[in-house]
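pls design
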């Protein structure tokens, strides 16, 4: 800062002390915030970091790793944003020196394997690992009874998520596993997650769902299942979801839905149910959905675009436009 060059000695002295800031970064002392944005950093900027930093953002730089020792420089840290760097590894016990950290955002890095206890020690509430290269998650990354309320794991390469990993986060309200390669969500995975409000499983490879998967998540408000390979939905799977406002089932392989499937979804908002882009077969098995749509047209998203892919005689017809005779019911 310019004040360092000032002629008044004490002003200069305090000016220098209070304006410590890492080279290439911007410091905002009143907010205790440091931002290193799109600069040629290749390592964590330990030198000159104000000790009282509570928010640190390092984004669009070339740093490749971050360790427990690095974070010892900022013991008051509450939020650490590391968007779009080149992080490849994190050290085990990474957060031991930041006991107040509640938010960690690692979006857009190249993380693939993470070590033991990497997210332990801090009372993390928000953890974002979006758009990395992670293939396997491990329960040993987290402390027991983690305080996480928000976990975003979208855009990785997960084929499954271990039950014991999910069971470590009983306070979770938002779980985003979209854009992965998930083939299954194991039975009982979500049982302790009674506070879950949003569950996003879009863009995966799920071909079936366990009938009791959602039996404990009674406060679920948003459920995204689009862009999977679901060809069947268990009859009672949504039975407990009386708070659900939005359900997307579009872009799956559904021919029909079982009778009663939607009967308990009393909180669905207008256009809250997306059933488009499925290969509906318009025969007697459509009786339930046909009847539901007649009564709840406003709840369906673009209801006229829910069309038959078979039988041949009804191909491309809107389900809404059919008659009972055509459906043979
Ligand atoms: C952080 O410390 C600097 C001096 O190092 C001080 O100027 C600043 O006001 C402090 N910020 C907060 C929010 O306490
Ligand atoms: C990161 O490194 C690459 C290759 O060395 C360079 O082209 C790029 O400008 C660097 N990024 C920043 C933000 O300095
Ligand atoms: C990350 O990996 C590199 C190369 O394998 C290693 O030198 C470095 O110490 C590792 N950093 C951490 C924080 O584990
Ligand atoms: C969760 O937060 C509480 C209160 O801040 C804290 O006492 C507890 O240690 C935290 N739990 C974990 C596992 O960090
Ligand atoms: C579900 O939501 C209600 C109303 O918002 C709330 O009172 C209740 O505590 C929630 N249940 C759980 C398990 O979080």
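designed seq:
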């Amino acid at each position: 800062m310019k004040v360092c060059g000032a002629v008044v000695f004490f002003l200069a002295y305090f000016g220098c002390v209070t304006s410590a800031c890492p080279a290439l970064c911007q410091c905002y002392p009143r907010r205790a915030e440091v931002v290193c944005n799109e600069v040629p950093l290749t390592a964590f900027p330990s030198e000159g970091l104000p000790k009282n930093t509570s928010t640190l953002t390092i984004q669009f730089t070339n740093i490749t790793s971050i360790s427990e020792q690095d974070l010892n420089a900022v013991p008051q840290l509450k939020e650490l944003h590391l968007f779009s760097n080149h992080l490849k590894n994190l050290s085990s016990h990474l957060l031991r020196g930041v006991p107040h950290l509640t938010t960690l955002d690692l979006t857009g890095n190249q993380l693939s394997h993470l070590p033991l206890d990497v997210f332990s020690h801090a009372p993390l509430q928000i953890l974002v690992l979006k758009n990395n290269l992670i293939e396997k998650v491990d329960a040993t990354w987290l402390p027991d009874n983690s305080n996480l309320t928000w976990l975003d794991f979208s855009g990785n390469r997960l084929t499954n998520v271990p039950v014991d990993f999910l069971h470590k986060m009983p306070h979770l309200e938002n779980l985003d596993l979209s854009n992965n390669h998930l083939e299954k969500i194991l039975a009982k995975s979500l049982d302790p997650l009674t506070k879950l409000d949003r569950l996003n499983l879009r863009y995966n490879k799920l071909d079936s769902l366990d009938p009791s998967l959602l039996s404990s998540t009674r406060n679920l408000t948003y459920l995204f299942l689009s862009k999977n390979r679901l060809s069947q939905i268990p009859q009672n799977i949504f039975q407990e979801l009386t708070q659900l406002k939005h359900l997307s089932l579009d872009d799956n392989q559904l021919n029909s839905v079982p009778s009663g499937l939607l009967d308990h979804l009393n909180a669905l908002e207008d256009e809250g149910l997306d059933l488009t882009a499925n290969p509906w077969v318009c025969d007697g098995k459509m009786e339930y959905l046909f009847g539901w749509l007649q009564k709840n047209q406003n709840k369906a998203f673009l209801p006229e675009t829910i069309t038959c892919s078979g039988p041949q005689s009804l191909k491309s017809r809107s389900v809404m436009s059919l008659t009972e005779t055509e459906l043979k019911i």
